[in-house]
Design brief:
Blueprint: H1 22-25, H2 29-48, H3 51-60, H4 80-93, H5 97-117
Helix pairs in contact: 4-5
Length: 119
C-alpha cells in the first residue's frame, strides 16, 4: 500500500497524476513533458519516505488557518423561558450563553448542509 493511500486528503490517481486528457492537451508539449518529469520525481521521492518521516513532518507543520471575516451581531427575539434555560445550560457548561447558541446554530447549519448534499 502506498503511503498516500493512508492519508485521507490526498487524492489517489491509479494511472498517475499527469495522464493525457483534454485539459492537458491545451498545455504546450514542452511544458507537459516538464510537468510529467517533475511528477515522476515527486512520486519517486514520496515513495522513499517512511510513515514515521511523514508523521514527523505533519507534527512539525504549522496548521493552515483561513482568516474569517469578523462575526456579525444578530438580534433575536426569544421566549424568556427559553432564554433562561439556555443561560442555565451555558452556566453548567462554563461558556457564555451567546457562544452556546452560536455553537448550536453552527451544528444545525452543518447538519442541514449534509442533508441537502445527500438529496
Amino acid at each position: 500500500m502506498a503511503l498516500r493511500d493512508g492519508i485521507p486528503h490526498v487524492e489517489h490517481h491509479p494511472k498517475g497524476l499527469f495522464q493525457e486528457d483534454k485539459e492537458m492537451s491545451r498545455i504546450p508539449e514542452k511544458t507537459r513533458k516538464a510537468l510529467k518529469q517533475e511528477a515522476v520525481q515527486w512520486e519517486r521521492e514520496i515513495s522513499r519516505e517512511t510513515s514515521e518521516q511523514i508523521q514527523g513532518l505533519l507534527n512539525d507543520a504549522e496548521p493552515f488557518q483561513v482568516p474569517r471575516p469578523p462575526r456579525q451581531p444578530v438580534s433575536l427575539r426569544m421566549d424568556p423561558f427559553d432564554l433562561s434555560m439556555i443561560k442555565r445550560l451555558a452556566r453548567k457548561k462554563g461558556v457564555p450563553h451567546t457562544q452556546l447558541m452560536a455553537i448550536w446554530l453552527r451544528e444545525r447549519v452543518e447538519k442541514e448542509k449534509r442533508l441537502d448534499a445527500s438529496k
